[in-house]
Design a protein that fits this description.
Elements: H1 2-9, H2 26-39, H3 43-74, H4 79-93
C-alpha cells in the first residue's frame, strides 16, 4: 500500500524525536499487525505515516469549512440559505 512504499523510500533520522507509549485495544493492534506484516513495514512507520495523513486530512477539512464560513459572511448567507441552495441544486440534477 501507499504508506509502506512511501516509508521504504523516505527514511529520515530526526534527533528531536519523542517516544510515546500508546495503549491500543487488542483488536485494533491485531489489524495494524496484519497490515504491516503484509506490507513489510514496522508498526512505528505505519502509525507515524497514518498520523501524518490524519492530521493533513483534518487540516484540509478545516480549511474547507473556514473558506465556506468566510464566503457565507462575505455574502451575508445564513445556514438556511445554504441548505436551500443545496436543495435547489439537487432538484435540478434530477
Amino acid at each position: 500500500m501507499y504508506i509502506c512504499r512511501l516509508l521504504k523510500h523516505k527514511k529520515q533520522i530526526d534527533m528531536s524525536v519523542a517516544i510515546v507509549k500508546i495503549p491500543f485495544q487488542a483488536e485494533l493492534l491485531q489489524q495494524i499487525d496484519r497490515f504491516v506484516d503484509e506490507k513489510v513495514c514496522s508498526r512505528t512507520d505505519f502509525i507515524l505515516e497514518a498520523t501524518k495523513m490524519y492530521i493533513a486530512r483534518k487540516q484540509n477539512w478545516q480549511n474547507i469549512f473556514s473558506y465556506g464560513d468566510r464566503l457565507a459572511l462575505e455574502n451575508n448567507l445564513s445556514e438556511a440559505d445554504v441548505m436551500n441552495e443545496i436543495k435547489a441544486y439537487r432538484s435540478e440534477k434530477r
